[in-house]
Amino acid sequence: MARRSQTFPDSALSGFEASSFPHEDITHRVFVIGDGPPVIVMHELPGLSPAVLHFGRRLAVAGFRVHLPLLFGEPGQDDWQASHRALCVSREFANLAAGVSAPIVHWLRALAVHVSGLHGGVRVGAIGMCLTGAFVIPLILEGVVTAPVAAQPGAPFSKRFRAVGIGRGPWMSQLNVSDDDLTQAASRVKADGRSLLAVRFEKDRICPREQLDRLESVFGDRLIRRELPGGSFLRPPHATLTEEWERAPEDPSHPTRRVFDEVVSFLNAGLR
């Protein structure tokens, strides 16, 4: 992946560099901004939305070189329904099946190794959100990934539960990665003395509490678990680091500000 193949001076991508990374039969563009230890940010279900691009910029300001792979759609895309329909039939995402590590995860693991090499073999942070929240788990199997963050892992999910809070079931503790990857990743962080940071809102109905319960049952005391207050039954919050951050007041004591600061501290501790 070339370091500087294209720049975007006058758009939503202002300040980002872009190139393509091929691995096996999958190729995706990657947008990069900032200087410092490398962090891979995997965007959430609506797409590489303005809120995700803003999050990448905030991490860059905090002192990281942020790598944002475009996993589907186009830059600036913010269409939850269209993205969900497309991914339900996507082979790269294994049709959003529970208990399966999709082909895109193997591409992401290769990207992590590649990014480490670009920086001279350094450690890499990885942040997954919503659809990609659990994808950081198999990335842990690459020794270069030492600061993994699972933000509101939200696949699989129930449309009915999301809408009205009805439809509880086994899906609530499932993840869109394989059980083998989950077990091996937990063994890796325990052996290396590292941790997985997982965050969600208490009232989130896309990422129910049972998903973090599942992670805690496997990772034990190597899971740093954060559940944020806020929202209501009629408007349950979801995106801890992006959309809810943008909606929140400029108050350093707000839960979204505190969790962003904790993510930055976690990355610094694992990478520097």
Structure description:
By secondary structure, this protein is α/β, with parallel strands linked by helices. It has helices at 50-61, 80-87, 103-118, 136-139, 159-164, 179-192, 209-219, 243-247, 255-271, and strands at residues 6-7, 17-23, 26-33, 38-42, 65-69, 124-129, 145-151, 196-201, 223-228. It is globular, with a radius of gyration of 17 Å. Residues 1-5 have low confidence and may be disordered.
Furnish the topology, listing elements before pairings.
Blueprint: E1 6-7, E2 17-23, E3 26-33, E4 38-42, H1 50-61, E5 65-69, H2 80-87, H3 103-118, E6 124-129, H4 136-139, E7 145-151, H5 159-164, H6 179-192, E8 196-201, H7 209-219, E9 223-228, H8 243-247, H9 255-271
Parallel strand pairs: 4-5, 4-6, 6-7, 7-8, 8-9
Antiparallel strand pairs: 1-2, 2-3, 3-5
What are the key terms here?
single chain; 272 residues; alpha/beta; nine-stranded mixed β-sheet
CATH superfamily: Alpha/Beta hydrolase fold, catalytic domain
What integer value in Å does the Rg equal? Answer: 17 Å
Sequence stretches where pLDDT stays below 50 over 5 or more residues: 1-5
Number of domains in the coordinates?
Answer: 1
CATH structural architecture: 3-Layer(aba) Sandwich
CATH class: Alpha Beta
Question: In short, what is this structure?
Answer:
The chain has a nine-stranded mixed beta sheet with strand order 1-2-3-5-4-6-7-8-9, sandwiched between helices. It is an alpha/beta fold and 272 residues long.
